[in-house]
Amino acid sequence: MLWIHSDSFHRLSLLLLFSFIHLCFQLESILLEMQDPKIGVKGTEQKLNISTIPHVIAGNDIIAWISNKMKTSTEEAQAFGTMLVAYGYIYPLQNHKKLVMCNDSSLYRFQTPYFWPTQKWVPDDSDYGIFTLLLHAVCLCFIQAHYNHLHEWLNHKWDFIVMQATEQYKAGKERKKPDRVVFDCQERAYWMVNRPPVSLSNSNMFYQQAIMRSKVKSSVSLGALVKYITTYKNHDPFLASCLPSNPWQTDHDAYWTLNMRRVEVPTKMRVERWSFSLFELLSDLRGRDDFKIFLKKEFSGENLAFWEAAEELKWGTASSMSTKAETIFKTFLAPGAPRWINIDGRTMGLTVKGLEHPHRYVLEAAQTHVFMLMKKDTFFRYLKSPTYKDIQKKALNPEQHNFSPANLEQNALNRSPGIHPIILWQQEEEEKAKVAAASAPVDVKAMMSKIDRKK
Amino acid sequence: MCDQTFMAATFGPCDSCSKPSPLMNIYIKNEATNYCSLCVEMMACQGLQKGETLESLKRESETLKKKLEEERNKLNDVELHQVAEKVEVLSALSIKTRRVLKGHGNKVLCMDWCKDKRRMVSSSQDGKVIVWDAFTLNKEHGVPLPCTWVLACAYAPLRSLCLIMNGYLGLDNKCSVIPLSLDKNENLAAKKKSVAMHTNYVSGCSFTNSDMQLLTSSGDGTCALWDVESGQLLQSFHGHTADVLSLDLAPSETGNTFVSGGCDMKANVWDMRSGQNIQSFESHESDINCVKYYPSGDAFASASDDATCRFYDLRADREVAVYQKDSIIFGASTCDFSLSGRLLFAGYNDYTINVWDVLKGTRATILFGHENRVSRVRVSPDGTALGSASWDSTLRVSWSFSTGSNYIFRFIKLLFWVNSRLVLEFTVAF
After folding, report:
1. A152 vs B contacts (CB less than 8 Å)
2. Contact, A173 vs A119, CB < 8 A?
3. Looking at residue A152, what is its pLDDT?
4. What is the pLDDT of residues A353-401, one digit of tens each?
5. Of B199, B268, B259, B237, nearest to A149 (Cα)?
6. For position B112, what pLDDT does the model report?
7. Does ipTM come in above 0.90?
8. What part of A 271-300 touches B (C-beta under 8 Å)?
């Protein structure tokens, strides 16, 4: 959370560090050699205007060293040297706008390992500030993409990085103007080189995945969409009339009262809707209750109970996750558990292993398996069962309201406020608590101590 | 309703770092692998590999794009209007706007229905958020807020409200959740709890299946999933290259995906678990203002500034319909489906709401009444009414005037009467 709010200084630095480290694997060993006082490139102190810059190296010296070390021609060595400059390992002191390695006496210097360009964000350096602001605005969208992962990846090094950053910042304040100008060019060169490949390879990966993803023939998928519309046609209040009447039209809320959550007898339309799909049946809590009655008769209620518990884990608060995961394991997955669910060995193995470090999606595989089982088998048996047929017979078919204009006026004056949703929610919570208490395993010790105390 | 044919490993050990976490299914050199999102990012950041240059990557990108188009076209064996020919024509719709909710002092920017099918929350530019019982026209709660732009509001499944407030110039990007209670005089503004934070304005929010998690979309080009209680960021979604203006959660049994639309003219479908961008559709010609899932979860519609609404089929992976008319030149800012999915209600900047026949592609009817831009249309949870919010500071509720059996009864009565009159005439004549 905090990192999303810290300023771009941290963000930019992190990204550069990150990318830099990758490149490091290739060039680091070479650079270390180059900087070695004995076998590396010879450095001197150079006077530049009035300031003295220590440890400068000449371009031709560098190229000579590279061609000698790598046994390459001068041109190749120069190309390699240019790459070192372009990637920011070495920066030129004169001609700082041109990031190439020149085979002459032009001067260069080795870059410090951590490159913090946002030292420009010092209030008194307003001219630099504007320049970097523009740059950062462009780079920001790119940075954001990696920000969270960077934080995670570098988390353990965080304090170290911050410490380094503050030190660099302080050192940077004392830096001379030529160095600062050089940093500007480095920054620009860095973005020029490093940005395009990353976004391209990312989108290439996306295209590849898109090509490989299984698609369905248009006739099949469009046919399914049409089938959905045809199935629900009579249930759409904009296309067919509501029974007994649309509350908005007649100002009478019978339609809502008849379709409430805990109604004793549901309406025919509602029962018909349960037969459309398992998802409909489970989404309507009244339907879910009916399904539970059926499952109880079949002694196979553990699948639905597991599914409900998994849903609660997925959509619950982050803090409650580990306790919920533990309860679920004890109740459904442990060998010999009271409500052991029957899933294949591989899924069980994956789930149990995942539960060691609970994550909200740890039960995904098991939940999908259980849902598919219910959808393909239990659901159809439910529709053919006496439980369902019974509720179908009992279901209400309310008469269409036939209000005269006078009646309608009366209705408009007496619009019922209905039951407040919060009261309904409180009722639901009470019911859930009752059910949970009823099904919890009896704690024998507590019972005994209670009896003892009563005595 | 339709069989879920895509089953892939979604949680387990990552093929690269072996940590158990939500997985992304990707292809590396044509081989399917499952990486966690961190490893995917690290892989993507590797820079140029051996033998790769900027040019080669660009060429690869072009060939892949072409191949994707080819694959899509291979399965394109029929068009929506052809399939729709077998479907009966819609009977004449009679939709009337009969309820007007007045109470805001300035443009109403957003509204949302409560699960009880009659209450709604609305937010406006005057900094007020009002909870109405739209059936009785009572105002139940009024929350005055310190800043002026309350860009969006959402009702949670159980009892909370989510409000998105952006300070002047979008510098104060707060998303707060307020738990509602029965006490009408309670100071709700004091109970608000700050949840999401983005680096730019927050454009839309939506609760997931519970009051505990919140999805937000932002002008910084990302979407994010938050845990309400702790304010922790659970997952972030990157892929849009411009502001994300709207999002919608899939109403499917798996409930794991959502779609987002933005100013980069793209509509992206995301997996909430791994943060992966599963599908992307780029056919609009301007900013996408609103995206909404089809009730079955296998398709979605989008409304855009290019004055069209488009319909995308997720399983066929392409756009299947465009809803446009020469007479409509103003951008569409919002859209929503009716319960069966046959009708698409779209609110436009020319103060009207066009109702489209989703299958046939024609306009079924047009609703007038608002006196300024329509900022939001939402069908009530049981499909009985359509709520619309507008810059004219009112909210309106519209519904279909049914041709119920009372009319048929009256018609039969009339027939009898005519018949009896005719019989009388004839007997008189003879």
Report:
1. 38
2. yes
3. 52
4. 888 888 888 888 899 999 999 999 999 999 999 999 999 999 989 888 8
5. B237
6. 93
7. no
8. 276-279, 282
Residues A56-112 pLDDT 10s:
788 888 888 888 888 878 888 888 888 777 767 787 777 655 667 888 888 887 776
Residue of B nearest to A259 (CA): B382
**What fold characterizes domain A125-194?**
1.10.1240
CA A331 to chain B, closest CA, distance in angstroms equals 21
Cβ–Cβ below 8 Å for B9 and A365: yes
Question: Could you tell me which residues come within 8 angstroms of residue B395 by beta carbon, excluding any fewer than 6 positions away?
Answer: B100, B101, B104, B108, B111, B120, B122, B132, B134, B387, B388, B389
Residues in chain B with CB shorter than 8 Å from the CB of A204 are: 57, 60-61, 64
What per-residue confidence (pLDDT) applies to A150?
52
Cis peptide leading into A237, omega within 30 of 0? no
Q: Tell me, what's the pLDDT at B6?
A: 36
Q: Cite the beta strand spans of A88-245 per DSSP E.
A: 90-92, 107-110
Domains in chain B with CATH codes: 4-74 (no CATH), 86-429 (2.130.10.10)
Q: How confident is the model at residue A47 (pLDDT cuts 50, 70, 90)?
A: low
Locate A138 and state its tokens.
């462009």
Q: For A352, name the nearest residue in chain B, comparing CA atoms only.
A: B12
Q: Is the CB of A197 less than 8 angstroms away from the CB of B48?
A: yes
Smallest Cβ distance to B181: which of A148, A249, A422? A422
Q: Which residue of A has its CA nearest to B86?
A: A226
* pLDDT for position A15: 55
Distance from CA of A29 to the nearest CA of B (A): 18
DSSP per-residue string spanning A358-386: --TTTTHHHHHHHHHHIIIIIHHHHHHSH
Q: Do A319 and B278 touch (CB under 8 A)?
A: no
Q: Residue A262: its chain B contacts at CB < 8 A?
A: none
Between chains, do B294 and A359 touch, taking CB under 8 Å as contact?
A: no
Pairs of CB atoms within 8 A across A/B: 336
pLDDT at B425: 62
**Residue A350: pLDDT over 70:** yes
**Higher-confidence position of B166 and B328:** B328
Q: What is the pLDDT of residues A395-434, one digit of tens each?
A: 989 888 888 888 888 888 888 888 888 888 888 888 888 8
Please report the pLDDT score of residue B38 as a whole number: 75
**Is A368 an interface residue toward B (CB < 8 Å)?**
yes
For chain A, which residues make up each domain, given as ranges?
34-115, 125-194, 266-394
Query: If you average pLDDT over residues B71-83, what whole number do you get?
Result: 88
Decide if pLDDT at A228 tops 70: yes
Segments in B18-99 forming alpha helices (H): 37-44, 54-74, 80-84
Q: Are strands B318-323 and B332-337 parallel, antiparallel or unpaired?
A: unpaired
Contact state of B20 with A354 under an 8 Å Cβ cutoff: yes
**Class (C level, CATH) for A34-115:** mainly alpha
Determine contact, residues A193/A86, Cβ cutoff 8 Å: yes
Residue A6 banded pLDDT, cuts 50, 70, 90: very low
From A393's Cα to the closest Cα of chain B, the distance in A is: 23
Contact residues on chain A for B159, CB-CB shorter than 8 A: 421-422, 425
Nearest CA in chain A to B67: A211
Across the interface, which of B83, B197, B342 has its CB nearest the CB of A239? B342
Per residue in B93-146, pLDDT tens? 889 888 999 999 999 999 999 988 999 999 988 888 899 999 999 998 888 877
- The CATH label, of 3.30.428.10, 1.10.167.10, 2.70.70.10, 3.30.1440.10, for the domain at A266-394 is 1.10.167.10
Angle at A39 between CA A35 and CA A42, to 5 degrees: 60
Phi-psi region of A308 (alpha: psi -120 to 50; beta: other; left: phi over 0): alpha
What are B238's strand-pairing partners? Answer: B222
